[in-house]
UniProtKB/TrEMBL annotation:
SUPFAM superfamilies: Radical SAM enzymes
NCBIfam families in UniProt: NrdG2
InterPro entries: Aldolase_TIM, NrdG2, Organic_radical-activating, rSAM, rSAM_sf
Keywords, comma-separated and alphabetical: 4Fe-4S, Iron, Iron-sulfur, Metal-binding, S-adenosyl-L-methionine
Sample GO molecular function, one term: metal ion binding
Annotated PROSITE patterns: RADICAL_SAM
Domain of life per record: Bacteria
Protein name: Radical SAM
Organism per entry: Rhodospirillum rubrum (strain ATCC 11170 / ATH 1.1.1 / DSM 467 / LMG 4362 / NCIMB 8255 / S1)
Gene3D superfamilies linked to this entry: Aldolase class I
Record-annotated Radical SAM core domain positions: 18-223
Cofactors demanded by this protein: [4Fe-4S] cluster
Length: 232
């Protein structure tokens, strides 16, 4: 049994959580940040009686050896949970490659996990000095930057991605963010437009309908060896 692992859901097959891989995605509860466009706000609350137990998730993974490429731990912010490292090692013990979705809220915890990971999807919210307006946490930009530095230094495969909501990030801020990321050495950058599905902030969901989505200048795009806008 893995202690202190609060699971909020399990996607038994995902084609999008780790691009190019067939994976199961384990959604963990908890996050120290409160981004208004969060598409999984239900994971921020307390444990639900219907939540799967790790033993059941592990049993499912055992049955999918040879059929799935890997396992992704997502959230919420999965590094919130102390049992994550043991769960990663258990999945690797079954022969799976392991990916992680994170916003980098806990640099020290991420540093300990990186040697056990094969891929990271890293969410960057805004220029680092403007993070607090989105996350509600004053030190979140510094934490995210420290975590991103650790990821880039690790040599692990990754993609950095930013969710675009036109009321929260405009084209000037997006260009500024892209310049910061390029200067840090980010090679793989993905933009993904805000989707209202799952967003608990009804006003924010409505406001996106009347505003043009910001775009990244061609010059800024060219700074990344791998760049795309993900629409699906």
């Amino acid at each position: 049994m893995i202690p202190d692992l609060r699971i909020g859901g399990l996607a038994r097959l995902s084609l999008c959580d780790w691009p190019g891989e067939l994976v199961a995605t384990v959604f963990l509860r908890g996050c120290p940040w409160r981004c208004p466009y969060c598409h999984n706000p239900g994971l921020l609350g307390a444990r639900d009686p219907s939540d799967p137990a790790w033993e059941d998730v592990f049993g499912f993974l055992q049955s999918r050896r040879g059929l799935l490429d890997g396992v992704v731990f997502s959230g919420g912010e999965p590094t919130t949970q102390g049992g994550l490292g043991a769960a990663i090692d258990a999945a690797r013990g079954l022969g799976f490659r392991v990916g992680l979705h994170t916003g980098g809220a806990f640099p020290d915890r991420l540093a300990a996990l990186l040697p056990h990971l094969d891929w990271v999807g890293f969410d960057v919210k805004a220029p680092f000095d403007a993070y607090g307006a989105i996350t509600g946490a004053a030190d979140s930009g510094a934490r995210a930057r420290d975590s991103l530095d650790l990821l880039l230094a690790s040599g692990i495969a990754y993609e950095v991605r930013t969710t675009l909501h036109p009321a929260l990030i405009d084209e000037a801020a997006l260009d500024a963010l892209a310049a910061e990321l390029a200067a840090l050495g980010v090679a793989s950058y993905v933009l993904q437009p805000f989707r209202a599905e799952g967003c608990a902030d009804a006003d924010l969901a409505r406001s996106a309908r009347g505003l043009a989505m910001p775009t990244l200048s061609a010059q800024a795009q060219a700074a990344f060896p791998r760049f795309c806008v993900r629409v699906g």
